[in-house]
Amino acid sequence: MTTAGPEGAADEWEESIVKALQPTERRDELVVPAERAEPDPRPDEAVVEVEAFSVNRGEIFKLEAGTAWLPGKDVAGRVVRAAADGSGPRAGARVVGHPPAAGWAERVAVRTDALAELPGSVPAETAAALPLAGLTALRLLRAAGAVAGLRLLLTGASGGVGHYFTELATAAGADVTAVSRRGERLGELGARVVPDVASADGPFDLVLESTGGANLPAALAKLAPRGTLIWFGQASRTPVTLDFFSFFDGPESGTIRHFHYADSDIPDGTDLATLVRLVASGRLHPEIGRVADWADTASVLADLRDRRIRGNAVLTLTSAAHTLPDAADRSSQNAADRATSDPADRATSDPADRATSAPADRATSDAADRAASDAGTARSPE
Fold this sequence. Notes:
By secondary structure, the protein is an alpha/beta fold. It has helices at about 55-65, 125-130, 130-145, 160-170, 185-190, 215-220, 270-280, 295-305, 325-340, 345-350, and strands at about 15-25, 30-35, 45-55, 75-80, 95, 105-110, 115, 150-155, 175-180, 190-195, 205-210, 225-230, 255-260, 290-295, 310-315. The chain has ten helices and 15 strands. α3 (about 130-145) crosses α4 (about 160-170) and α3 (about 130-145) packs across α7. This is Zinc-binding dehydrogenase. InterPro entries: ER, GroES-like_sf, Lipid_raft_assoc_Zn_ADH, NAD(P)-bd_dom_sf. It comes from Actinomadura gamaensis.
């Protein structure tokens, strides 16, 4: 395989195979190592060699649903083939990207308007945690409007969206109450942290709700008259029941607004560039609760699904470790593990022992903190 030439045009691109993670449609092991054809980009797409990707609970929901969708919406790496139409970063540029799918692989094609270049001060592991959660938080704040002096209630605040939004909103002058059972970091970011909606001291001018189920009507009851509730997810996967007459008990004439982060007139790449600038200038700090090699993706997905990771989970591909075990190796190893492992040991092992350290600029983040992971964007999240 040859990459793009010095001017960014593709001199030659030999067909080859890339390693990737493939959905299994099995709940016990959502993805397995596989191979697929080299990305075949459209004229407005660049091919990115992935160095790190982030996983989201919404992707887990899709995998559990058994769809043929190839996961991978948050990636960071280096452009190895610039877009044929001349748009976007040149070959060799370090980038963060938000493809619609297929990012859990060695290489992925990404539209150039969904890419942002990275300065040397922002490592790939940090950048990979930005796209879905960061875009959601930035656009939620934009939807909320001028928040200086307003009282805000944020549910499902323990994950990436919650941490990003809290830091952005408090910096904009909002008085934020965040619902999280382990919210030490949210408190450091300026939020008043409560363990559940019932403990929140309302009324609030604005409620941002991402969990659904019984939490939404409970949060709605905390809304001030003529206030707004922005509904941006249903992470509980439990439908919501509302009573018209309950509005008279507090949130009279209140507004409920549906929000989906992808419904934006601003290109993803433009907003990603804003997020990168905030990170590089020290005004936004990704909360990364787990960094691991992509060979451990299946176990990281299980921990994220079971809410044992706070903030974002990031998987890395190193130059020497683009190796994933093939199916035969995995089958033999799994059989050996089952034959030799002690069930008592498996039951008592601390998942925190498996967690790796977060990037150096997030040294204060406790990777072992098991909190409710957010990613409660619309469709919880995508």
